[in-house]
Design a protein that fits this description.
It is a single chain. 45% of the residues lie in helices and 16% in strands. The chain is an alpha+beta fold. It has a single domain (5-154), classed as CBS-domain (Roll), CATH 3.10.580.10. The strands form two sheets. Strands 1-2-3 form a three-stranded mixed sheet. Strands 4-5 form a two-stranded antiparallel ribbon. The longest helix is centred in the first third of the chain and has 15 residues, at 22-36.
């Protein structure tokens, strides 16, 4: 039996819009984590026509908030970064999703075989891959779902 993305993809998922602020995106991250009963570390970004235009991860948001020269600060014992942190958070809230999203995306089709998906995820260090059919977003494959599917199938999963 050939296992494909169709067998392991989620078809219900949260998305962001490019014009949303980072503050709005963080609320969606939290909502997605609560509703899906697992942490959402990245969300797809779609336009008004539900076409995939990007992806934003928690890493992208943290990268926005990280001071550019933080490596130098570690040597400054007399520096109070509390006020800087507050200012960074204030500024980050108004940045738009489209300004930080990744647009160079790898996607698969519902018929992509599972071992090809594993190969892509490992080679490209991907935790999630959007699934497109005829150019339309129809699902997302998470590495955790692939992992548990394979462990269950191989008999490695413990109960």
């Amino acid at each position: 039996m050939t296992v494909t993305a169709r067998d392991v993809m989620d078809t219900v998922f949260f998305t962001l819009r490019p014009g949303m602020s980072v503050a709005e995106a963080v609320k969606i991250f939290k909502l997605a984590s609560e509703e899906q009963k697992s942490k959402s570390f990245g969300l797809l970004v779609t336009n008004d026509h539900s076409e995939l235009v990007g992806m934003v991860s928690m890493f992208d948001i943290l990268l926005l908030m990280r001071p550019k020269h933080i490596h130098i600060w570690g040597e400054m014992n007399d520096m109070d970064v509390g006020g800087f942190l507050d200012e960074t958070c204030r500024r980050a809230k108004i940045v738009r999703v489209e300004d930080i999203m990744t647009t160079d995306l790898t996607s698969i089709t519902p018929d992509t075989q599972l071992l090809f998906i594993v190969d892509i995820m490992i080679r490209k260090h991907m935790r999630r891959i959007p699934v497109l059919e005829d150019g339309k977003l129809v699902g997302i494959v998470y590495i955790s779902k692939v992992f548990y599917y394979l462990m269950e199938r191989s008999g490695c999963e413990t109960t």
